[in-house]
Structures are given as C-alpha cells and as structure tokens.
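Extended Data, panel c. Modelled sequence:
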Amino acid sequence: MRVQKLITITGVCLALTATASAQFSAAGAGAAIPASGSGGGGVTPDVALPPSPAVSTAAVGVAVTNIDSVVIDGFSHTWMGDLQVTLSDPNGVEHLLFHRPGSTGTSVGNSGDFTGGSYTFVETGGVALPTAGDAAPGTYNQAFDTGGGFTWVSGTLGINNTPLSGISGPSGNWTLTIYDWAGGDTGSFSGWTLNGNGGGGGNTGASYCAGDGTGAACPCAAFGGTDEGCLTTSGTGAALVASGNADVANDTFQLDVSGAPANKPGLFFQGDNQLATVTAGDGVLCSNSTLRYGVNSTDAGGNVTQTGFGANAAAGTSLNYQYWFRDTGNTCGGGFNFSNGWAVTWQ
C-alpha cells in the first residue's frame, strides 16, 4: 500500500477520542524479597501474613475483565518453598498465584531455587512448579495446592483462590505481593508484567465532526444524516464507521464507508489534529492531513473499506481519519466531499 505525505493544515482540537479497552500489558518495578518469616517457624501460614513482603504495583488504564498471565522477570530466591505470591486489584481484593511449592502444611516445602530469568504464570498451559529441586525460568500454572498435599483454603487471610480468567477489577494500580514465610533465605525480582483484557469490545474509537448539522455547517446547508458527512449526489451523507482493534501489536482495525456516490475514486487520510470549522469542496474537513492512503474507490453500492492503519501508528497516539472522495454534480459544485471523521487512540 502506498502512503504519501500531504500538506499539514493546522487547526483546533475539538473532541476527545473515545476508546474501548481490549488487550493490555502493564509493567511494574522490581523489589527485594526479604527473609521475613512467619512468626510461627515458617510452617503453617494460617495465623498472620508475614511482615514486610516484596510489593510492586503496575498501573492499568482500563477496567480489567480477566487476566491472561503474570510475568515475573529476574526472579530469584534460594528456597522457593518459603514463598507465596499474590495479585491484588486496586480495591485490595487479593488473589493467589501460588504458595509454598512442596509444602505439606507442616513442612517448609521445596528447598530448590528460583534461579533468575523470567517466570510466566498462567491458569493452564504451563507446568506445575516442582516440589523438589530448582525451577528453571519458564511457564508455570497458577496453583492453589502446593503439590505437597497442602491446599490453600480460599479466603484465608483475605487471599482468594481465583483462576486468572476469573480475576476482574477496576482500572488503577494492580499489586504483585511476594510473601516469605521463613527466615534465612532472600531473593529479588527485576520487574513484572500483568497481561490481560479489559472491556472486551475491541479498541474502535468514536465518530466526530458529522455533517448532520450538529457541528460545522455544510456548504449550501446540504446536511447529511446522523453521523454522516455532508449530503452527496447519492442522496445521503457518507458514513464512516470502525471495527476491530486499534492495537499496534495486533492490528485488526478497519474503517468502512457507506452512502457515498457509487464507483468514485477516493482515499482515506490520517491526521494528528482535529479541525474546527473548515469547509472544503462540498463537505467539512475534520482533521489536518499528514498521511494519505492509496486511492480506494467506492463500489456500485457506494461502499469502501480500508485496513492496515496500524503500520502508521504508535501506541498511545491519538489519530483521526476521514474519507475524501470525488463528488461531481453536487449542489455546491465543489467536485469533492468528505465522510464524517473518526478518532481513536492506539494501544
């Protein structure tokens, strides 16, 4: 697909973009894991949680519907049977990832090590943490049973046995906590990442700058319908809508136009800024134009589709799109027209 530079037109940013959440990744800092001890010999974790756990937060910008994985980087500790790891939502609801591999409830558990590197914890699809010997970096299953015969009773000390796919919560700071139930051995991790889904509807953005009379006046007062561009020779305005997911790592974002004149050449263009009241041809220009996509003519029904926008986007950037097309014979005689605009913030 050919992409060309256009002359930039500066203007005034009007509307806020609207985003629906989809897949997310949020990162947190590393921390030392002190040899806290349980105050009970490090054996039975049912009286009080160990003091001074390792704690790190990751800011999640969307409401979470489920968790896919938790990745702990640079994870090392010289006695893995000491450790219990949890994930808490911004409201403080705490969920168990694993606790004390190899413990029977009256034993100290696996004396093997977490040896450094990245450890990914998933609901299923990994392997069980070993009950003896070191755990090499890799992918491990979330576990409510130690594998040594000791099962954590859900709700004990406020820690719930919730499968990752069932963990949800609001946007905000999510917390990884690593408790050490025995003295003598220490460890650390260099960082962690929370991967999941929020909202569930894909990141599609929202329409703005319609030529239906709610915004800038169309030339000759030739208004289109709700959320359409200004009136065209087809008898309607050209309506631009989006679907899919505007995610640079998993781009399924698609723009579709309907109601435009049949079999006319046109192109989609991209801009950084939204404009105020700029009329051009027989329509309203909704954005400055920094990139344009190759000519993509309408079909016999006045429809046209475009994909591949993620190649020209960066995560966190808000971009605006519009369809510009040939429209000869219209009331105002401008020779070309526009759809409504579409705004989205890329993930």
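The chain has a mean pLDDT of 86. This feature is highlighted in the accompanying rendering.
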